[in-house]
Design brief:
210 residues, mainly alpha, Arc Repressor Mutant, subunit A, Tetracycline Repressor, domain 2, 0% strand
Length: 210
């Protein structure tokens, strides 16, 4: 019997180059020492191909940052749409995001956190068209299972997340330092989700006096 030829689709060179850059940035102690030639060797392409695809190293770092953000989004979507109960989903999202971010290089994370003009439009579009709709469904699920206050205003919560992102951008050096310190990240995450009060206080004087 004659063997049939199987055509295995090849990944686009652009994607192969991005993956090679992400891996080298992750492994390097100083990503500034990762050259275009190093990336070309790992991706098995010529340096000229990289320049033709991206123009310069900065553009390649931007694409690596986009790739990380899409990985985080894909991880979150997989967890949120699974059959796990809400509490396990939330735990999976938090730990998964920290794991992915901790494995990335400082240069790539700095690009994401700073939200410079080369990547800010991509981040905003991903949040508005992908992350926020997914969060709305997730919060509704949390309310139905009793994990989230049914009176939570979802629009206010999403605005809170936007403010949180802006704060991270303003203090990117601190965030880059803390991502290597799990204890600090855990405390920051705890405050973000639970606040800092141990007992409920009538801050706005709306409860009836007993």
């Amino acid at each position: 019997m004659n063997a049939k030829t199987i055509n295995i689709p090849r990944r686009p060179k652009r994607q192969v180059i991005i993956e090679a850059a992400v891996e080298l940035f992750r492994r390097a102690h100083d990503v500034r020492k990762v050259s275009i030639e190093d990336i070309a060797t790992t991706a098995r392409v010529s340096p000229t191909t990289i320049y033709n695809q991206f123009g310069n190293r900065e553009a390649l770092v931007t694409e690596a940052a986009k790739s990380l953000l899409m990985d985080i989004g894909a991880m979150a979507e997989k967890v949120m749409t699974s059959d796990l109960p809400f509490d396990q989903k939330l735990t999976g999202i938090v730990t998964g995001k920290i794991t992915l971010a901790s494995a990335a290089s400082n240069e790539v994370m700095s690009k994401l956190v700073s939200q410079d003009k080369n990547i800010a439009p991509f981040i905003e579009k991903m949040f508005r068209t992908f992350a926020w709709p997914m969060w709305r469904d997730f919060l509704a699920e949390g309310k139905s299972q009793g994990y989230i206050d049914p009176d939570l205003d979802v629009d206010v919560f999403l605005a809170y997340l936007d403010i949180f992102r802006a704060g991270m951008s303003a203090h990117q050096e601190l965030i880059l330092e803390w991502r290597q310190n799990p204890e600090k990240l855990e405390k920051l995450t705890h405050i973000a989700f639970y606040g800092f009060l141990k007992k409920e206080i009538d801050l706005f004087g709306k409860k009836e006096c007993k």
